[in-house]
Design brief:
Blueprint: H1 9-26, H2 36-43, H3 47-53, H4 57-64, H5 66-76, H6 90-99, H7 102-111, H8 118-139, H9 144-163, H10 171-186
Helix pairs in contact: 1-2, 1-7, 5-6, 5-8, 6-10, 8-9, 9-10
Length: 207
C-alpha cells in the first residue's frame, strides 16, 4: 500500500509524532548524530512507516521546520491597521522567543546557515518574499519586487546570524531591531514629510 495523502488524519498524527521525536532528540544531541532508528523508537512507529513519509533524517527536519517558516511569515504580518513603527507585533517577539528554545537551537543551526542559506533559509526567504510581494502589490506600495526581496533577505539573514551567534541579544531586542529595519525598507518610495512635520507611521504596505 502506498503512502497516505498528506491530509489523511493518520498521516498527520504520524508526522506529528516524528516531529516531536526529532525535537526531543535534538534536545539531547546534535542533528548529525540522530538516526532513523532513534526516531522511530522514540516515536513508536515502524521503520517502514518512517520511509513512507521521509527519505532521511534531514528530510524530516526540513518538514518539521515548515511550521517555523509559517510562524515567521505570519508574525511579520500579524499587525492590523497602521503598524507601529517602533514596537514590533507581539507575535514577532514570541517567534524569536520560540527560536531561542534550546530544544530547537541545533536543528535551526543545521538547517539555517549563516547569512540565511540552507534548506530552512531558502524556504523562509521564498515564503516571506511571496507574502511580502503579494501584500505590497495589493496595497499599491512602490517597487514591490525590490522591497519584497529586501525584506526576505534582511529578515532571513538576521535570524540566521542570530541563531549562529553572529548577532547577540535577547529575543525581544532582536525582534525590535529586525522590525525597525523592515519598517525602513518599506518606507522606500514614500514621499518625504514636509519640513517640520512629525514622523508618521509606515503605510499599510509594510512587512
Amino acid at each position: 500500500m502506498g503512502p497516505r495523502p498528506v491530509g489523511d488524519p493518520r498521516t498527520a498524527r504520524t508526522r506529528e509524532r516524528l516531529h516531536a521525536a526529532l525535537l526531543a532528540e535534538c534536545a539531547e544531541r546534535p542533528l548529525r548524530e540522530i538516526s532513523v532508528a532513534m526516531l522511530v523508537r522514540r516515536a513508536g512507529v515502524a521503520r517502514a512507516t518512517f520511509y513512507l513519509h521521509y527519505t532521511d533524517v534531514q528530510d524530516l527536519a526540513v518538514d518539521a521546520c515548515a511550521e517555523t517558516v509559517r510562524e515567521a511569515v505570519d508574525a511579520l504580518h500579524s499587525w492590523r491597521g497602521i503598524p507601529d513603527p517602533v514596537a514590533p507585533p507581539p507575535a514577532l517577539t514570541a517567534f524569536f522567543e520560540s527560536v531561542a528554545d534550546g530544544a530547537r537551537t541545533d536543528l535551526y543551526r543545521t538547517l539555517l546557515h549563516p547569512g540565511g542559506g540552507g534548506p530552512l533559509g531558502d524556504t523562509l526567504h521564498r515564503e516571506l518574499r511571496e507574502r511580502s510581494l503579494a501584500e505590497r502589490t495589493a496595497a499599491g506600495g512602490a517597487a514591490p519586487e525590490l522591497i519584497a526581496s529586501a525584506v526576505a533577505a534582511t529578515f532571513t539573514g538576521v535570524l540566521a546570524d542570530w541563531v549562529h551567534g553572529l548577532l547577540t541579544g535577547p529575543p525581544h531586542t532582536l525582534a525590535t531591531d529586525a522590525w525597525r529595519l523592515l519598517i525602513v525598507l518599506h518606507r522606500h518610495g514614500a514621499p518625504p514629510p514636509a519640513p517640520g512635520t512629525p514622523a508618521t507611521p509606515a503605510t499599510p504596505a509594510t512587512p
